[in-house]
Amino acid sequence: MSVEEVYEVIRKHTEFYKNSLPLIASENITSKFVRNCYISDLGHRYAEGKIGERFYEGCSFVDEIELMAVNLMKELVKAPHVNVQPISGVVANMAGFFALTNPGDKIFALSIPSGGHISHEKYSAAGLRGLQVLHYPFDAEIMNIDVDETKKLAEKEKPKLFVLGGSLFLFPHPVKEISEIAAEINAKVMYDGSHVLGLIAGGEFQNPMEEGADVLTASTHKTFFGPQRAIIACREELADRVDKAVFPGVVSNHHLNTLAGLVIAAMEFKEFGRDYAEQTVKNAKRLAEELAEEGLKVLGEDLGFTESHQVAVDVRKQGGGAKVAKKLEKANIILNKNLLPWDSIKDTENPSGIRIGVQEVTRLGMKESEMDVIAKLIADVILDRRSVDKVRKDVISLKKEFSKVKYTFEEHEAYEFLRI
Ligand SMILES: Cc1ncc(COP(=O)(O)O)c(C=O)c1O
Q: Location of site Plays an important role in substrate specificity (predicted)?
């Protein structure tokens, strides 16, 4: 196998994305300014420890970068303390569990079908910490936590931690109400804002720190269009516990090249984040409305379908999420099958729904009128109105008009395989 052969696979992947509609709710595209950082020498170095107190020499410029990242992220999420070292959202959650709980403690989290992430579960980070996970009572009508039932259950079970936020996340969570319940039983609140960080930073979603959460964890590459890594933010009095949970708790190398990329993405957010986040939510709402108009069963109808970047569609009538997502992929429409609140975890292979995220197409400059087109293309495939081949052709021509990264300092080609 040659280097060129590997590059050829990457080239094909890039070409495929160039010709596709990327609608996976947990992804985004970075600008070339962010990507330039990835290939810098920073990607060869270590900087264990805190800014100015490293375990290795040679870190003075890394200190400068990390300080920029900390200050920018503090400003964007309005938190008194931010640690930017977690290398992914799961790692940030592990740090949160380390900082806020002891093995054997009970925690409340959303079940996966109700929107919880696997890392909140016994099979993953929460289980590794030895936590007992209890699920919030969930109201599928409003796609949200049932606060009254949660209060009753919390008085009985006395959890040490309430995890909010999740992966299927249409509407803001009751952070204020849950924080009040937590305060009564001396528990803490950790908000996993991985999906919505870009909307929080852009001022288009609830700010969990302002509403009463103790800790905010978040990936920086979903609605926040930065590199694949994460942050953990907290109240000042928890700073020491959180920092120790990150290092030496769950991180050694913290991937300094993508840390520099995070600085650039945060700068882009300061300048363009408001417009991008506003358009993202507008696009999600419009796509949901149009899909409903086309005859699909979109969740959250009574509440305007969504207040985030996501749209959830119940496709049981059309054969279930697995079949539908695969068929859409053949038309170059990339999204994922998704469990919905009434599903059992055993339905993971063929859940009731699909989940759609509009953040990446928004970053490419799409607006409401393109959402109308996308809704039709999706419905054409799901409802067997037109052949997959015909829809794919339309997807490719739509995508040709939206091939540039926007909301950055200088528009440029989005899908390019850059070589040094
Ligand atoms: C709510 C939530 N938390 C954490 C994660 C994990 O993030 P990462 O992939 O950065 O580890 C995800 C991933 O999709 C998520 O949806």
A: 221
Same domain? 232 vs 303: no
Same domain as 291, residue 218: no
Binding-site residues for (6S)-5,6,7,8-tetrahydrofolate sit at: 116-118, 236
pLDDT in tens, 363-402: 999 999 999 999 999 999 999 999 999 999 999 999 999 9
Which ligand 1 atom lies nearest to the CA of residue 169?
A: 1
Q: Residue 420: its pLDDT value, please?
A: 87
Each residue's pLDDT tens digit, 349-366: 999 999 999 999 999 999
Own/partner contacts of 374-380, CB < 8 Å, gap of 24 or more, are 374/21, 374/23, 374/287, 374/333, 374/398, 375/287, 375/290, 375/291, 375/293, 375/294, 376/290, 376/294, 377/21, 377/331, 377/333, 378/291, 378/294, 378/296, 378/328, 378/333, 379/291, 379/294, 379/295, 379/296
Ligand 1 mean position to 291 CA, how many Å?
Answer: 26
Query: Which residues have C-beta atoms less than 6 Å from ligand 1?
Result: 26, 88-90, 117, 119, 165-167, 192, 194-195, 219, 230
59 with 122, same domain?
yes
Single out the residue in 243, 266, 289 at which a domain terminates: 266
Looking from the CA of residue 91, the nearest atom of ligand 1 is 11
Q: Which of 266, 299, 333 is the last residue of a domain?
A: 266
| For ligand 1, mutation pick of 117, 173, 254, 339 (most atoms within 8 Å of CB) | 117
Q: Which domain holds residue 383?
A: 3-24+273-413
